[in-house]
Amino acid sequence: MKANTIYRLFSGICICCAIVAAACSNIDESERLIYVEPAVAVDTTEVNPYADLDSLYNLPVSPVARRVLIEDHTGQKCPNCPDAANMIHEFQAAYGDLIVPVAIHSQMQGIMEPEGLGNELGNTYYNYWKIEFKPAGLISRVDGGDGKVLDKTIWIFALQYILPLETPLDIRVKAIQNADDPAKADIDVKVIGTREGQSVNGKLQVWITEDNIVAEQDNMGTHVADYRHDHVLRAAVNGDWGEAVSISGFEDQKEFHYTANLKSAWKPADLAIVAFVYNDDEVVQVVRQPLRIED
Fold this sequence. Notes:
Helix content is 20%, strand content 34%. By secondary structure, it is of the alpha+beta class. The longest helix has 21 residues, at 3-23.
């Protein structure tokens, strides 16, 4: 999709929503989230993410719903960033696991490791995308017409554009803490073509994220010592920018196998693997899979 096409779409949605907001100014902002039907029907029945990983990993190939990656560039000293985090929680409440957020902490308005959540990987992405403000988000890396870094006020419009789109890919992840060495995780990733005649050439990126981190945060000028940070980017499993992957069509698949080191400061029970395939234009598909902890 060309950038100017996406820009026109975003602009049209923004204008329409502005008109609606003006006519309905008495409606609370948090109640204006408009549900958008995904391109593929989604079974909303809750599934235990740890149950029978082999069966889930080897399910028959079929078209799947497109998920959306939200790269939330944030910081513990960013007073407006908790507002963006709350917005992401609203997206998750509306769309469930179709929303895959990753909180990327860096030095700008942040606290670097080991005292804080910022790390050099976050700095790498912050500098690459030339981010000038926080919170800032990349929404499946689509270009809104003025670049891929989007202000939080238009994240919802990007979601409403992306969610109805089809995807030619499914990604499956099996991630298990190593029984012999709990400081390691064994990660299998399978990228599968789900549509006949649709090929994809891009890169597979695999990240480790952590939920339920209690740490300080500036919230609109108020210091919160026990703020809960979720989906925090901890490490890249296969390099800062991933590795090449090519899928030629329906049922074509590629498998990748990794062993990741788990730092002692991380809580294995709160870790997850985020795997996505991207190209120069967008993130084609993404998935999140919690790390399975071996008893």
